[in-house]
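User: Modeling request: complex.
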Amino acid sequence: MSSADLTSQRDLPPERKVSAKGDIAPEHDGPRDTGMDDAGLHRWLERTWRTPSGIVGALSSVDHKVIARRYLITAFVFLGLGGLNAVVMRIQLSGPQRGLIGPDLYNQLFTMHGVTMMFLFAVPIVQATGIYLVPLMVGTRNIAFPRLNAFSYWVYVSGGAFAWVSFALNMAPDVGWFAYVPLSGPEFAPGKRADVWAQMITYTEVSSLAVAVATIVTVFKQRAPGMSLDKIPLYVWAMLVTSFVVVFAMPAVMITSTFLILDRLVGTHIFNPAEGGDALLFQHLFWFFGHPEVYIIFLPATGMVSSIIPVFARRPTFGHLGLVLSLIAVGFLSFGLWVHHMFATGLPKLGASFFTASSMMIAIPNGVQIFCWLATLWDGRPVIRTPLLFVFGFFFIFVIGGLTGVMLASVPLDLQVHDTYFVVAHFHYVLIGGSVFPLLGAAYFWFPKVTGRMMSERLGRWHFWLAFIGFNAAFFPMHLVGLWGMPRRVYTYPAELGWGNINLFISAGALLFFLSFVLFTFNLVHGALKGTSAGNNPWDAGTLEWATSSPPPSYNFARIPIVTHIEPLWAEREALPVATGLRVDARELLISTVAEAHPDIREKSAAPSIWPLLAALAVGGTFLYSIFTPWAIVWGAAPIAITLIGWFWPKGDPEDEE
Amino acid sequence: MKQRAAADLSGLPTFGHGPRSPTWWGTLGFMALEGTGFALAAGAYLYLAQSWPDWPLSAPRPNHWPGTIVTILFIVSLVPNHILHRYAKQCSMVPVRIGLMVMSLLGIAPLVVRWFEFPALNIYWDTNAYGSMLWVLLGLHTTHLITDVGDTIVLTVLMFTRHGYSGRRFGDVGDNVFYWDFVVLTWIPIYLLIYWVPRLG
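Assistant: Request completed. Predicted assembly structure:
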């Protein structure tokens, strides 16, 4: 489609309807951007869209970039904390019968490590990357439901703080990250530790569900004119599919944790076989969430890889349609795999065979993705920079993790290595290889957009090799020690088993891997303070986030871009076609149609508000109080209702009216 | 990067009803995730029911009458709900105000009867897993009912202020109609599960 088509009769009503019918106050029209010069336009838009100054202003921010930055930094802090958990565990395991920490603390350490990495790092950081990038990539000025987005951040922070303060008080969950009953039930887990697990889940899932809905609506309704379904960037597709997986998977874990806390707190018997309940029900519900969770973490990473590869291969992605269909197929298939986490529970044979088959089937769309990326690189003229190095690391590590995955999908092998370090090795290859390496590549790739400065390429290469060697040194030997029979989640082992040397080697690798993150942190800080200036588009990339300045202004785009090609900036090298006619004195953005992205409505985006923070405090306080008494839900209802009404009640801003 | 103006958006309207509006899609998203929650809770009930041959664990059958009255009230409420929707789309203030008041009352009425549904289950949540699941299912739906009735009342008040004269507010009324349909629709399978499935066995 050429940009001229967009001005045709079909797309835009030629004249403004002066008065809408019905009981509506006449629209207070304001100045428009049409014909305005660049400096004047910037002054207007900056005044309208900026985050207010002062502490209250900062806490009221609804700018998706501000919220995303907070998310990214918070998730990075939790990565550091979860990493420190791992380091302490590896020091304890570096030799047989070390007495550094006892079994009770060790149980809390591996639970906090898993919970932190899954719920406080991996999911939030991939969603945060989406919060930052999706509105820029689809060419809009803010995420849909910006206040809900702000609310999600505050709920997430309070959930994370709740878990870690509990850890500091020796009250952290100690029942593993999936907290199976009966171990976590009222009989075997007295005290508050399992309740902390259950409610921390509720906080983080509320937060990611909110982000998922906001992301879906942003992609469906706020795309720039002309960005029809076939022109949506692959990263945006990945975030869209991920958000759908979140919407259908996360309720399962909220149901699980709610059932658990009901059993523990008010004496229901849902998981109690003595009174007609069932312990396996917990595992079914948990893994109905838990397996899609892997893809919630992995799919955004594939989107990042699909963004990085064409830029450094210097050609558009090979097999765009195949990649989109693979993403969707993986999203669907991810719901058909949960039982392969339960092969050791004695399920009927036919059921087990079905889940073996579907576990192997998901390798097909994932394989299609890998081959499309390889073909893009093969046909292009690859420029090897740090982001691409991390993509290569991803290929290598993720493929190994995928191969052990196919092995584990077969029931006899799974039974043999169940609960051993082989499984630990497998899922760290899949999760770190499949998600963390692409994330690190993405950090180098988009850092210039976020900060306006470049990270050091030399330090980046050092970082990559340190991380790659450290990771493989730490996790590859775990396959072996697992096959030798070392169980996971043991705080020590006797010297006679002969696992001492290999564990020392693993610990050394883990330390190296940790140091690579120290170097990364230094590179981040150094780059943000002293890095060379990046300019709008340092990599000469083709998607819309590179069309605006680095870092982007509060309003993202001075004028909404028009999309004519899958890589719009490569197609329109002389001048970017843009749309005009939006108001500049109110937060106006463009709503378009779902499939074709035809311009449809000029809608107002919500103004900054302190109420999302207050609502999050009310919700967080209720969750916290609820581990002590069920009446918390009754007492908490009033503050929650008041803050929500405060949130939605119009304050008379132009954004609230019309 | 240089820019060239290629399209003019100034003639576009400032609000739209139904699937044209982002809020409608957001409501649909929340329905999808809450609906998943309902489906999983119902699935958990059926999983337990087929796990135990003596389900419902020799508990007395629930008295279905309060639940049946709630169901009838819900179904009746759909008629004014959709009449309200038509007026909301026309943006006509007086019928919308009347409709919202009617819908507030038709929300409070089943909530009152709901109060009598809990004792009519004839079992406590801590008696056995069957009792637990009945209370969970009924509680889950009641949470949605309370939330939506609260939302309807606030919106009714809002439409009596000067803020009501806005296309977006009429759009909000449309989304409120949409969500009430969801509350009614999710009740039907839960009603059958709570009151009629135990009578099958």
